[in-house]
Fold this sequence. Notes:
By secondary structure, the chain is of the alpha/beta class.
Amino acid sequence: MRFGKFAHFALGLSLVLGISLTATRPAQSETLDSVKQRGFLLCGVSAGVSGFSTPSADGGWSGFDVDFCRALAAAIFDDVSKVRFVPLNATERYPALQAGTIDVLSRNSSWTISTEAGLNLIFAATTFYDGQGFMVRRSRNAATAEDLANTKVCVQAATTSEQNAVDYFKTNGMAMELVARPTAAEVLAAYEKGACDVMTSDVSALYGERLKLEKPDEHVILPDVISKEALGPVVRGDDLRWFEIVKWTHFAMVDAEELGVATNTLDAALGSAKPDVRRLIGRDAVSAEKLGLNNDFAARIIRHVGNYAEVYDRNLGSKTQLGIPRGINELWSRGGILYAPPMRWKPQEINPAGRVSSDTDSCWFVSATLPWRAQEPCRWRQHFVAVATCCADDNSSGPCRTCFYRHSFRSIASLVDLTGSKTSSTDRSKHSQSLFPIQSCHASTLKDSLMSRPTNREQ
Ligand SMILES: N[C@@H](CCC(=O)N[C@@H](CS)C(=O)NCC(=O)O)C(=O)O
């Protein structure tokens, strides 16, 4: 019995018996287990949208959506070849995901409430912010979409584009006739042979489709963008762990771009002392193991596929035929809306009273509680924690050898060491056996704070 069916059964039973079920997150991802068992990922892509997913003559695939599948394979297997691509048109895509034919859908799919609420699927992230546009023959002399009244509009069936087009013409009191076709190739063929005056789709897809026309220059994409299309990977709604794996695969790529970690800088990053870089690439504590991934999953993605910018530039950027400007898909820090939470420790894992957190199996945390007044440069908090990776003092990323679970300064000193700011043994003895809170700020600030803290604060 699939977990989904079990969940429905359990929910039904609980309603009948009046028992309330507390939602708990399974420790393992059922999808991840079956991917690992099978030995490769099954990734649904579009049958052929330039820049996003394009099959080549030798059976290979390339594109932005395809690379996302490869990033997942890298995260799971450390091997990008361990993925099979399943081409799906708009009508086929969601049933294929629901039926388990694919593990994830990475196919220019727009995030909608009906997909999530109605089909029990979840969008894990927005990997490309798009919008719908129109393509017309240059000879038509249309300057804006308002010039498209009384036209025949070609669109792919079972897409958000179909509904948006109807809405747009209705809202603007313009007559139109919709010409819907099941595949992208049929839509383009209908447009090319004159079965319609206009072709409408996501702007990114229009750029690619235009290149397939015999004379691309004879066609223009109008400046109007009539909708918001948040495109991203989709998973089944019954496997939250898998959802998190897919989501953090995207976040890792965006974080990597933001931190300047790319394929050609990864080796340098592996020796970096910067805490946020070290966490990203799994040198310091992250909780990826909880998801069933290795802590270095982001490093694997960056090594084999690249960060977000590398993937964008390779498939869609100014050096490609498509040349789609980053626009709103630029990082938030550069004026776009691409924003990923950083990889860092969860406050919930902070334990009171200097006890080791429940996470003893991976030995990530050393914690301490102390009422402490605000003090610069680290703003001490009432309850804070010294967080230390358990892997030996030598910064190795190998298996756990030492768990720094004692609330002694030795643990703290080890933390300082591991964040790259070397602390001498003399420093250690000065502060031995003290228990005090530490905020996870920069290694340098942290060290200063440790060294300048008042003594005799034993709690
Ligand atoms: N983003 C829209 C449109 C997606 C879509 O299917 N667009 C067409 C535009 S050409 C496409 O990708 N077709 C490729 C195919 O069917 O393989 C949606 O999610 O409904």
